[in-house]
Amino acid sequence: MQPAEKRPPIVNAPLPLTVFALLLIALHGARVFAPQELEIAALYHGALFPERFWGWIGGPVLLPGVAPPYAGWMGAMAPFVLSTLLHGDWFHVILNAVFMIAIGKPVLEMLSALRGGYGPGAIIMLFVLIFFSQAGGGLVYLLLNNPSGPIAVGASGGISGLMGAFFLMREGASSRLLSRNFLTVTSIFIIANFLFALVGPALLGASIAWEVHAGGYVAGALFARVLIWNALRKLDI
C-alpha cells in the first residue's frame, strides 16, 4: 500500500504573517460592529489626522472643537503605528491582508537568509520593517498634507515598505539604492501609485493615499539597505 500523499496547506504562508493578516481583518470587523462611539474613537485616535498633528506642532487649528491638537507626544505618535490596524472598508482590509501575505513571505525568506535561518530574529525584523515603513509613509503623508488633509488609515505603508525591501534585496549583496534596476522598478511603482490615486476614487469610491505608499516604499528600501550593510559587516565582506 502506497502512503497517502500529503496535502499542501490551504494557506502556504508563514504562520506569523497569516496570523497578522487575520488580525487586521478581525480588528476591522470588531470596529465595524462596535458601537458608533467606539468606532469613531478608534479613528479619532488611530488614523493619520493632519489637522490634529500640525495643530500639535504649532500650526493653525482649522477644526476647533472637532479636531483639536493632540494633547501630548504619545497621542501624536500613536497613529504612525495604529493606522496600520485600521481600514476603511472590507475590500480595503482584505486586499491589504492578501498583499501582506503575498509580499511578506518572500521578504521573510530573504530576512531569514540574512540572519542565518528562519526564527524569532527574522520574524521580529519583518515586523520592525513593516511598522518602520508604515511610520515612514505616515510622515511623508503628513508632510505633504500640511496643514490639512483627509484622514488616512490602512497598512499600505507597511506593505509598500515590504515591496521596497524586496525589490532592493533581490539584487543580492551588491544591491544599491541608486542602481539602474532598482531605480527603474521604483519609478514604475511611483508612477503606478500616482495613476491609481487619480482613478481610485472613480473605481473604488475612496481616495488613495499615494503619499503613504511612496514614503513606505522608500523607508522599506532604506531599512533593507541597512540590513544588508550590517550583514556584510558581520561577514567582513
Automatic annotation (TrEMBL):
<protein>
    <submittedName>
        <fullName>S54 family peptidase</fullName>
    </submittedName>
</protein>
<keyword id="KW-0812">Transmembrane</keyword>
<feature type="transmembrane region" description="Helical">
    <location>
        <begin position="150"/>
        <end position="169"/>
    </location>
</feature>
<dbReference type="InterPro" id="IPR022764">
    <property type="entry name" value="Peptidase_S54_rhomboid_dom"/>
</dbReference>
<feature type="domain" description="Peptidase S54 rhomboid">
    <location>
        <begin position="79"/>
        <end position="228"/>
    </location>
</feature>
<dbReference type="InterPro" id="IPR035952">
    <property type="entry name" value="Rhomboid-like_sf"/>
</dbReference>
<keyword id="KW-1133">Transmembrane helix</keyword>
<dbReference type="GO" id="GO:0016020">
    <property type="term" value="C:membrane"/>
</dbReference>
<feature type="transmembrane region" description="Helical">
    <location>
        <begin position="90"/>
        <end position="108"/>
    </location>
</feature>
<feature type="transmembrane region" description="Helical">
    <location>
        <begin position="53"/>
        <end position="70"/>
    </location>
</feature>
<feature type="transmembrane region" description="Helical">
    <location>
        <begin position="214"/>
        <end position="232"/>
    </location>
</feature>
<feature type="transmembrane region" description="Helical">
    <location>
        <begin position="120"/>
        <end position="144"/>
    </location>
</feature>
<feature type="transmembrane region" description="Helical">
    <location>
        <begin position="181"/>
        <end position="208"/>
    </location>
</feature>
<keyword id="KW-0472">Membrane</keyword>
<feature type="transmembrane region" description="Helical">
    <location>
        <begin position="15"/>
        <end position="33"/>
    </location>
</feature>
<dbReference type="Pfam" id="PF01694">
    <property type="entry name" value="Rhomboid"/>
</dbReference>
<dbReference type="GO" id="GO:0004252">
    <property type="term" value="F:serine-type endopeptidase activity"/>
</dbReference>
